[in-house]
Amino acid sequence: SRVRTHHSSTSALGAMATVFPADQAIVLGGGLAGMSAANTVLENGGNVVLLDKSSFCGGNSTKATSGINGAATKTQKDKGIDDSVDLFTSDTMKGGAKKPEVVKVLCGNSGADVDWLVEKFNLDLSLVARLGGHSAPRTHRGKERFPGMTITYALIQMVEKIAERTGKAKIITKARAHKLLTNSAGACVGVVYEKGGLDFQEHGPV
After folding, report:
1. pTM (2 decimals)?
2. Does the pLDDT of residue 199 top 90, yes or no?
3. What is the model's pLDDT at position 93?
Protein backbone atom coordinates (compact mmCIF):
# COMPACT_ATOMS: atom_id res chain seq x y z
CA SER A 1 0.00 0.00 0.00
CA ARG A 2 1.05 3.57 -0.60
CA VAL A 3 1.71 5.71 2.45
CA ARG A 4 1.54 9.47 2.63
CA THR A 5 2.81 11.28 5.68
CA HIS A 6 2.82 14.91 6.69
CA HIS A 7 5.46 16.61 8.80
CA SER A 8 4.55 18.92 11.66
CA SER A 9 4.76 22.66 11.23
CA THR A 10 5.29 24.76 14.32
CA SER A 11 2.79 27.40 13.13
CA ALA A 12 -0.16 25.05 13.51
CA LEU A 13 0.87 23.18 16.65
CA GLY A 14 -0.67 25.62 19.10
CA ALA A 15 -4.01 25.52 17.33
CA MET A 16 -4.34 21.74 17.20
CA ALA A 17 -5.88 20.11 20.26
CA THR A 18 -4.08 16.81 20.10
CA VAL A 19 -1.97 14.43 22.19
CA PHE A 20 0.96 14.58 19.80
CA PRO A 21 2.47 17.15 17.41
CA ALA A 22 0.45 17.29 14.20
CA ASP A 23 -0.17 19.88 11.54
CA GLN A 24 -3.52 18.56 10.35
CA ALA A 25 -6.78 17.09 11.56
CA ILE A 26 -8.60 14.33 9.71
CA VAL A 27 -12.39 14.50 9.39
CA LEU A 28 -14.40 11.44 8.38
CA GLY A 29 -17.59 12.24 6.51
CA GLY A 30 -18.63 15.25 4.47
CA GLY A 31 -22.12 15.87 5.85
CA LEU A 32 -23.09 18.82 8.03
CA ALA A 33 -21.22 17.51 11.09
CA GLY A 34 -18.05 16.78 9.14
CA MET A 35 -18.10 20.07 7.27
CA SER A 36 -18.73 21.97 10.51
CA ALA A 37 -15.70 20.23 12.04
CA ALA A 38 -13.54 20.95 8.98
CA ASN A 39 -14.47 24.64 8.94
CA THR A 40 -13.83 24.92 12.68
CA VAL A 41 -10.33 23.45 12.28
CA LEU A 42 -9.59 25.94 9.49
CA GLU A 43 -10.96 28.87 11.51
CA ASN A 44 -8.53 27.99 14.30
CA GLY A 45 -5.47 27.89 12.08
CA GLY A 46 -5.16 24.16 11.47
CA ASN A 47 -5.03 22.15 8.28
CA VAL A 48 -7.70 19.58 7.48
CA VAL A 49 -8.10 16.48 5.36
CA LEU A 50 -11.71 15.40 4.86
CA LEU A 51 -12.52 11.88 3.70
CA ASP A 52 -15.91 10.86 2.32
CA LYS A 53 -16.84 7.39 1.08
CA SER A 54 -19.24 8.78 -1.52
CA SER A 55 -18.36 10.38 -4.84
CA PHE A 56 -19.56 13.73 -3.49
CA CYS A 57 -20.00 15.35 -0.08
CA GLY A 58 -23.27 16.23 1.61
CA GLY A 59 -24.55 13.01 3.14
CA ASN A 60 -28.00 12.73 4.68
CA SER A 61 -27.81 16.33 5.90
CA THR A 62 -28.75 17.57 2.44
CA LYS A 63 -32.11 15.79 2.67
CA ALA A 64 -33.27 17.62 5.81
CA THR A 65 -36.46 19.56 5.08
CA SER A 66 -37.39 21.14 8.44
CA GLY A 67 -34.39 23.24 9.44
CA ILE A 68 -31.90 23.33 12.29
CA ASN A 69 -32.78 23.62 15.97
CA GLY A 70 -31.18 26.21 18.21
CA ALA A 71 -32.08 27.69 21.58
CA ALA A 72 -31.41 31.30 22.65
CA THR A 73 -30.29 32.34 19.17
CA LYS A 74 -29.96 35.94 18.03
CA THR A 75 -32.82 35.35 15.58
CA GLN A 76 -35.10 34.18 18.40
CA LYS A 77 -34.20 37.20 20.50
CA ASP A 78 -34.86 39.55 17.57
CA LYS A 79 -38.31 37.99 17.17
CA GLY A 80 -39.09 38.12 20.89
CA ILE A 81 -39.14 34.31 21.25
CA ASP A 82 -38.60 33.21 24.84
CA ASP A 83 -36.42 30.09 24.80
CA SER A 84 -33.49 28.69 26.76
CA VAL A 85 -30.92 25.91 26.74
CA ASP A 86 -32.56 24.38 29.80
CA LEU A 87 -35.94 24.24 28.06
CA PHE A 88 -34.42 22.72 24.92
CA THR A 89 -32.56 20.18 27.06
CA SER A 90 -35.75 19.25 28.90
CA ASP A 91 -37.68 18.83 25.63
CA THR A 92 -34.93 16.63 24.19
CA MET A 93 -34.83 14.37 27.23
CA LYS A 94 -38.62 14.06 27.21
CA GLY A 95 -38.37 13.05 23.56
CA GLY A 96 -36.50 9.89 24.55
CA ALA A 97 -32.82 10.84 24.44
CA LYS A 98 -30.75 8.27 26.34
CA LYS A 99 -27.45 10.13 26.88
CA PRO A 100 -27.84 13.25 29.05
CA GLU A 101 -24.17 14.19 28.62
CA VAL A 102 -24.60 14.29 24.82
CA VAL A 103 -27.88 16.20 25.09
CA LYS A 104 -26.18 18.79 27.31
CA VAL A 105 -23.54 19.50 24.65
CA LEU A 106 -26.01 19.38 21.75
CA CYS A 107 -28.48 21.79 23.32
CA GLY A 108 -25.88 23.94 25.06
CA ASN A 109 -24.05 24.69 21.81
CA SER A 110 -27.12 24.92 19.59
CA GLY A 111 -27.71 28.67 19.80
CA ALA A 112 -24.11 29.62 19.12
CA ASP A 113 -24.00 27.07 16.29
CA VAL A 114 -27.01 28.58 14.52
CA ASP A 115 -25.58 32.08 14.99
CA TRP A 116 -22.26 30.83 13.55
CA LEU A 117 -24.00 29.53 10.42
CA VAL A 118 -25.76 32.87 9.91
CA GLU A 119 -22.73 35.08 10.54
CA LYS A 120 -19.89 33.01 9.08
CA PHE A 121 -21.66 31.66 6.01
CA ASN A 122 -24.17 34.44 5.40
CA LEU A 123 -27.07 31.99 5.58
CA ASP A 124 -30.68 33.06 5.84
CA LEU A 125 -32.13 31.26 8.88
CA SER A 126 -34.66 33.97 9.66
CA LEU A 127 -37.77 31.76 9.69
CA VAL A 128 -38.35 30.10 13.06
CA ALA A 129 -41.02 27.45 13.63
CA ARG A 130 -42.24 25.39 16.55
CA LEU A 131 -42.27 21.73 15.60
CA GLY A 132 -43.57 18.70 17.46
CA GLY A 133 -41.92 18.00 20.80
CA HIS A 134 -40.62 21.55 21.21
CA SER A 135 -41.92 23.96 23.85
CA ALA A 136 -40.88 27.02 21.83
CA PRO A 137 -40.26 27.96 18.19
CA ARG A 138 -36.60 26.99 17.64
CA THR A 139 -36.35 25.30 14.23
CA HIS A 140 -34.50 27.75 11.99
CA ARG A 141 -34.58 27.84 8.21
CA GLY A 142 -34.68 30.17 5.24
CA LYS A 143 -37.15 30.31 2.39
CA GLU A 144 -35.56 27.40 0.50
CA ARG A 145 -37.43 24.13 0.12
CA PHE A 146 -34.52 22.04 1.43
CA PRO A 147 -32.73 23.97 4.19
CA GLY A 148 -30.44 21.03 4.96
CA MET A 149 -29.05 21.18 1.44
CA THR A 150 -28.61 24.96 1.57
CA ILE A 151 -26.80 24.88 4.92
CA THR A 152 -24.55 21.91 4.12
CA TYR A 153 -23.56 23.14 0.65
CA ALA A 154 -22.56 26.54 2.06
CA LEU A 155 -20.10 24.79 4.38
CA ILE A 156 -18.85 22.51 1.61
CA GLN A 157 -18.21 25.50 -0.66
CA MET A 158 -16.16 27.23 2.04
CA VAL A 159 -13.86 24.22 2.46
CA GLU A 160 -13.62 23.76 -1.32
CA LYS A 161 -12.70 27.43 -1.75
CA ILE A 162 -9.92 27.17 0.85
CA ALA A 163 -8.72 23.91 -0.74
CA GLU A 164 -8.49 25.59 -4.16
CA ARG A 165 -6.74 28.73 -2.93
CA THR A 166 -4.40 27.33 -0.26
CA GLY A 167 -2.88 24.08 0.89
CA LYS A 168 -4.72 24.13 4.20
CA ALA A 169 -7.66 21.92 3.17
CA LYS A 170 -8.05 18.76 1.14
CA ILE A 171 -11.21 16.81 0.29
CA ILE A 172 -10.82 13.17 -0.77
CA THR A 173 -13.97 11.46 -2.06
CA LYS A 174 -14.58 7.76 -2.77
CA ALA A 175 -12.37 7.14 0.26
CA ARG A 176 -13.55 4.42 2.65
CA ALA A 177 -11.88 4.70 6.06
CA HIS A 178 -11.50 1.23 7.56
CA LYS A 179 -8.84 1.37 10.26
CA LEU A 180 -7.77 3.86 12.92
CA LEU A 181 -4.05 4.08 13.65
CA THR A 182 -3.01 4.22 17.32
CA ASN A 183 0.26 4.86 19.10
CA SER A 184 1.77 2.91 21.99
CA ALA A 185 -0.34 4.88 24.47
CA GLY A 186 -3.53 3.91 22.67
CA ALA A 187 -4.23 7.39 21.27
CA CYS A 188 -5.62 7.65 17.75
CA VAL A 189 -2.95 9.15 15.49
CA GLY A 190 -4.28 8.55 12.01
CA VAL A 191 -6.48 6.55 9.66
CA VAL A 192 -6.16 4.02 6.86
CA TYR A 193 -8.56 4.43 3.95
CA GLU A 194 -9.20 2.56 0.73
CA LYS A 195 -9.54 4.39 -2.58
CA GLY A 196 -9.50 2.79 -6.01
CA GLY A 197 -8.49 -0.59 -4.58
CA LEU A 198 -5.42 0.79 -2.77
CA ASP A 199 -4.86 1.62 0.89
CA PHE A 200 -3.59 5.08 1.91
CA GLN A 201 -2.80 6.66 5.26
CA GLU A 202 -3.31 10.11 6.73
CA HIS A 203 -1.67 11.02 10.02
CA GLY A 204 -3.19 13.34 12.61
CA PRO A 205 -6.06 13.48 15.12
CA VAL A 206 -9.22 11.94 13.65
Report:
1. 0.85
2. yes
3. 97
